[in-house]
Amino acid sequence: MSQEELKMGEYDLIVSMTDTNGHITYVNDIFCKFAEYEYFEVMGQPHNMIRHPDMPKAVFQLLWNRMREGIPLFAFVKNKTKNDNYYWVKAFVFPIMKNGQLSKIVSYRKRIDEFAKQQVSAIYADLMNYESSHTPEESLNYLINNLKEKGLSYDQAIDQISLGKSI
């Protein structure tokens, strides 16, 4: 059975919130629609329950590094659904800090276009290959160094792809 891509609409906005351990404390109806789960099925569950196997662990290593430091992150993410379908998003993930400590994490996600999917799929396939024999931290360093060779930071690469420019 082949996976079907679920396409987000122009105005769809997925919202979720987790605790500091990545367990879901809030989702909106759009999250449930695209993840193909009922609200009660996701509450309290690890957010990575929707992580697609095509997603490099390095991306989530960067996300967690940034959250602990109190730094927001944009990332392109391929998620899987309860029914083994998938959907692509551009996520804006930001930490909520209290007294200098991570208190919770909020994520807003919108659709991405075909250009971004193609660009990111190639980058992620390369990272997945690298991760087959390296740790997520080593894979993250590999990504950062590859981007640096192109004169880009991670954030600049995300911006460039978002603007429809190759990296």
- The termini sit apart by 34 Å
| Helix count from the secondary structure assignment | 6
Give the CATH architecture: 2-Layer Sandwich
CATH topology: Beta-Lactamase
Rounded to an integer in angstroms, the radius of gyration calculated over CA atoms is 16 Å
Number of strands: 5
Assign the CATH class. Answer: Alpha Beta
**Roughly what percent helix?**
25-40%
CATH superfamily: PAS domain
Number of domains: 1
| Major beta sheet, strand line-up | 2-1-5-4-3
Average pLDDT score? 97
Order of helices and strands: EEHHHEEEHHH
Outline the low-pLDDT stretches. Answer: none
Main sheet: strands, sense, barrel: 5 strands, antiparallel
Principal-axis shape equals globular
Instruction: Classify the beta-strand content into a percent band.
Output: 15-25%
Question: What is the topology?
Answer:
Layout lengths: L13 E5 L5 E4 L1 H7 L3 H4 L14 H13 L3 E8 L5 E13 L2 E10 L3 H18 L4 H14 L4 H9 L5
Antiparallel strand pairs: 1-2, 1-5, 3-4, 4-5
Summarize the structure.
The protein has helices spanning 29-35, 39-42, 57-69, 114-131, 136-149, 154-162, and strands at residues 14-18, 24-27, 73-80, 86-98, 101-110. With 167 residues, it is α+β, with helices and mostly antiparallel strands.
